[in-house]
Design brief:
- The chain is mainly alpha-helical.
- The protein has a single domain, classed as MFS general substrate transporter like domains (Growth Hormone, Chain: A).
- Helix content is about 80%, strand content about 0%.
- Helix 15 runs antiparallel to helix 19.
- The protein is globular, with a radius of gyration of 20 Å.
Length: about 400
């Protein structure tokens, strides 16, 4: 691993600070389903819609990436704060579950701006250290998300009505995060380039689609993503409705168990990711995730909270690799650094497609044939995505 130069060290420190405030923000809404169900009486359908909003809001990321790929995005970042974080200054308006879902549309929607912008910093400013730098900042993000979630869970159990105050804090912590992103983006020089035309949008998408290795990568990710999103409505409905988890238990499951392995292993994984074949990483990551729905399936059979916690642990373990693949994997396929932002936007938009389809299909399965089928079908999809990635590993070795 090459040493960080002075500019990279400064940027890394700034991004770590942004991760601290972003973790405090995300920790509050890590319990979004619990707040919706316990505080606002959300139905199973509304719980599923939260999954659609969370994952589907990124659907238009490619449009954002296309029109801003070679332009300064500081004012886009500012608009993102106002729309998706500053809006929580009006949290006192959240008096029912439908209003809460409306706020979540804005909150989740601006990740279509935030994620590509932040990832472009690692790609364009960190050089060969991008995986390690991402791992450090991701670790800080997970740590503060976990701590925030645990604190919020305890507080909500003691004072259920405090959710309004907690949600309003997002306007403050979000301001700190987005102010940092604005400052970093404002300092990046962009060479003059032709203004992108809407008529050329599909041409750019078609060019990306002709990159066969990238298409195969996205196919494996699509299968994995469907497996993951199928159980998005099933897991909170099962934990809250069948096992009757409290806020504290949900924060323990979604905070400590779902984030613990990511917290501990991400710095190590960052070093590995800079060296390992991307298909090997995908094979192991998707394979480990198979145990996530398996444990929930067994928990359902034996009514075991312990197995549910274990399922979240395997989710955390598998997502260590998936987080790198999701955020940095597309950089292995883009031809040059200037294209990475566009590829990432394309990738996130595809995530948005499965983010809409997966939870809705999951709700259909949940409401017709039962939660155990969500877990069973998810296992099959994780296995298929791992096997597809393994086939690419073998193809690469045969070619060499």
């Amino acid at each position: 691993m090459a040493a960080f130069d002075k500019a990279q060290k400064k940027l890394l420190g700034i991004m770590i600070l942004a991760a601290v405030f972003d973790g405090l923000t995300q920790g509050v809404l890590l319990l979004q389903e619990s707040i919706a169900r316990k505080a606002l009486g959300a139905s199973d359908t509304q719980i599923a819609l939260i999954g659609v909003i969370t994952n589907g809001a990124m659907l238009f990321s490619f449009l954002v990436s296309y029109f801003f790929a070679h332009r300064n995005k500081k004012w886009l970042v500012a608009a993102g704060y106002i729309a998706g974080r500053g809006i929580f200054a009006l949290a006192f308006l959240i008096t029912n579950s439908w209003v809460f879902l409306g706020f979540l549309v804005f909150y989740q929607g601006v990740f279509a701006i935030q994620i590509p912008v932040m990832n472009s910093f690692f790609q364009n400013r960190m050089g060969k250290n991008r995986g390690f730098a991402f791992g450090i900042t991701r670790t800080v993000l997970i740590l503060f998300t976990m701590l925030s979630s645990l604190a919020v869970g305890k507080l909500l159990d003691a004072r259920p009505g405090s959710y309004v105050t907690l949600l309003s804090v997002i306007a403050v912590t979000g301001l700190a995060t987005y102010a940092i992103l604005f400052w970093v983006e404002a300092g990046i020089p962009y060479e003059p380039s032709p203004k992108p035309r809407a008529a050329d949008l599909w041409k750019s998408a078609a060019e990306i689609s002709r990159n066969r290795p990238f298409v195969l990568f996205e196919l494996a990710f699509m299968v994995y993503g469907l497996g993951f999103t199928l159980i998005i409505p099933a897991v909170p409905v099962y934990l809250l409705g069948t096992l009757h988890f409290s806020y504290a238990q949900m924060s323990l499951a979604q905070g400590l168990f779902a984030q613990g392995a990511i917290l501990v292993l991400t710095p190590i994984a960052g070093r590995i990711f800079d060296r390992i074949d991307i298909w090997v990483a995908a094979t192991f990551s998707f394979g480990i995730l198979l145990f996530y729905p398996l444990c929930f399936f067994l928990s359902y059979l034996f009514a075991s909270p312990a197995l549910a916690y274990l399922g979240y642990f395997f989710s955390s373990l598998g997502l260590v690799g998936v987080n790198f693949l999701w955020n940095l994997g597309t950089m292995h396929f883009s031809g040059k650094p200037s294209e990475s932002y566009l590829y990432q936007g394309f990738h996130i938009s595809l995530a948005g497609i499965r983010g809409v389809a997966g939870p809705l299909l999951g709700l259909l399965i949940l409401s017709t044939i039962g939660v155990q089928w969500n877990f069973g079908i998810s296992m099959v999809l994780f296995a298929l995505s791992s096997l597809l990635s393994l086939s690419m590993v073998r193809r690469g070795r045969a070619a060499s």
